[in-house]
């Protein structure tokens, strides 16, 4: 055993030179041989509005946590383009399986942004209908949802809903840390061998709480796909145009029966992992500034300005409208009622269980025994 | 008026009938297609229903259960085969964190009508990981229901009831009894069978109540036969459902006999016997002539197969417990 192996040059897994980019940080459009977008002016302005709004709503939720109104919040700050780009790339019939940070995707699906706030306030654990919303319940166990997404995609194929423009596709969200989980790797295998209509969308935000990418991989994450037998693409995750183009192409490929794709959206978590985290303990000096220069929103604003697609009044109005939505969200969060204690006994089983039902009755009787008593 | 079937064949026919009754029923597992499963429980089903409904999966238990969840969300009714009890643990997270909690998490908006079949228990001379009894882990988890069949007729009907149920169900199959034969009246209707989560007196008696499930029901019945020769009358109850427990027949029996012995292969510490003893004590305290006694596997890892007959409860250990109960 020589020491040669330990001296082998390790390519930096975070070398971003090889990603798909259609819009530079300076707001300049660049062309790519395989990917393009054909947004009209309204649509470009709409993407800008999405980005600004989801950031504003996110900031409001962070503030709500700081004021004690949410138990915790997982901020998407810095990942707006990855979420808006991929979220807008979904067609109506497509199904998304999120982690717990996909507030921007949820917004772009046209879902009421209040929907996940109950989970973070602690009044429920999600509680929405994933099928009716075409958006899975937030999944906290890292990577677990990628298998649910794959199974759902297997079901689409069984239903014969692939092979046409109307075909259905699934997108599974996860992060760079999740790529180390067995479940994610098993999801890759199942999706590959059954050729399932799914896009694995990895937001590589450089950190799994405190651990940097180098603790998860020695190779760029998108390259892992080749070992599983399907294509992997790295996209500039702070570029909403490129993220849209790459995700839309991968979804359409899936819906036409051509199997899975791994998309690595190369981005950066500007905030903490959650409001319980302290990133000052692990951030590398200068990193924030470096990524601030690649901000997903400012580059779209520069584009709109450069191409004279929006004036100052537009930007002012977008900010004002986002603020209105944020204030409204705040008011609705504050109005979320605490659940009745009896709620915990409900929905353990679809048709109840004699044991849980008995405990619910005992619980009610116990509380009733205090009624009228002096405290 | 029935046919004589092995327990394994009864399961096979039960699966076949469930697949005929509902096109959304699909089977998933390792080697369940051409091979028919290592115990041949799915024998011939892929040939007749196709590989879209009888699915050989990659060798990844968490992947099997996790994708089954997605298929259930899509409207299918997956029946998963875990090849052996000791191999369910890679899927434990998906079962406990996802299968069990998805309905609750969604406030009832989604259901996961899945069945996870697990051949369980020892007595077949196997290597490590092939003889375990994981029922307490799953019974401890809210959101799951857990059942075990003990004979061919129950196997035939209970698997169909489990598949028809809207609950996620851990379905435990006593692997050492796969080849035991019994009468099954397949002409009956599913709807007239007794409920899935009901316990059943399988041998009436007056002196001691013996509680068992899965592979230990046969052992308990053998003990009852032997005890009868000594003039002692054992009442044997097949619990059939570990979660929820159907305690009505158990309490009624305990109050009549005043003596209870619980038998299971799983280790005693915090096993089903612990819960049964606690509940019986709470409900039947003044009727008991002796403490509830447990005859179980020991609190060791399942031993090498040359020692398993020492580890597993058998007729003599049940009779010993009966004696101890009378000695109180």
UniProtKB/TrEMBL annotation, chain A:
Cofactor dependence: thiamine diphosphate
GO biological process, alphabetically ordered: branched-chain amino acid catabolic process
UniProt cross-references to PANTHER family, sorted A to Z: 2-OXOISOVALERATE DEHYDROGENASE SUBUNIT ALPHA, MITOCHONDRIAL
Domain of life (superkingdom): Bacteria
Entry's Gene Ontology molecular function annotations: magnesium ion binding; oxidoreductase activity, acting on the aldehyde or oxo group of donors, disulfide as acceptor
Ranges of residues in domain Dehydrogenase E1 component: 52-328
Protein name in UniProt: Pyruvate dehydrogenase E1 component subunit alpha
Record organism: Rhizocola hellebori
Residue spans crossing the bilayer: none
Keywords, ordered alphabetically: Oxidoreductase, Pyruvate, Thiamine pyrophosphate
Pfam families named in the record: E1_dh (PF00676)
Record keyword Oxidoreductase present: yes
InterPro entries: Alpha-ketoacid_DH_E1_comp, DH_E1, PdhA/BkdA, THDP-binding
Automatic annotation (TrEMBL), chain B:
Superkingdom assignment: Bacteria
Name of the protein described by the UniProt record: 2-oxoisovalerate dehydrogenase subunit beta
PANTHER family: PYRUVATE DEHYDROGENASE E1 COMPONENT BETA SUBUNIT, PYRUVATE DEHYDROGENASE E1 COMPONENT SUBUNIT BETA
Cofactors named for this entry: thiamine diphosphate
Classification via Gene3D superfamilies: 3.40.50.920, 3.40.50.970
One Pfam family hit: Transket_pyr
InterPro entries in the record: THDP-binding (IPR029061), Transketo_C/PFOR_II (IPR009014), Transketolase-like_Pyr-bd (IPR005475), Transketolase_C (IPR033248)
Keywords from the UniProt entry: Oxidoreductase, Thiamine pyrophosphate
MF (Gene Ontology): magnesium ion binding; oxidoreductase activity
Domain Transketolase-like pyrimidine-binding: 5-180
